[in-house]
Q: What sequence folds into this?
């Protein structure tokens, strides 16, 4: 998926209320999320490329937004889930 299709899928699945491709790209390059962002050089998941667009595997992309994105504090540290 691309930043554009990723943003569309996140909204469609209800993982986020709204986000744009620019928002996803900002998260991908933000220092706050860098420790956990799964894609890029030296990361577990490489970016692919087609027609000049960066491509990301769908599973790890969705896992990041489901499991990490809303659980980071302002310093980029992972907050433990609350006990139910």
A:
């Amino acid at each position: 998926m691309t930043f554009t299709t990723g943003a569309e899928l996140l909204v469609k699945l209800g993982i986020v209320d709204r986000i744009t491709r620019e928002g996803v790209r900002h998260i991908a390059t933000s220092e706050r999320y860098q420790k956990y962002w799964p894609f890029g050089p030296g990361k577990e998941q490489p970016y692919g490329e087609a027609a000049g667009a960066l491509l990301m595997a769908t599973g790890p992309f969705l896992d990041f937004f489901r499991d990490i994105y809303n659980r980071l504090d302002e310093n980029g540290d992972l907050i433990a889930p609350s006990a139910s």
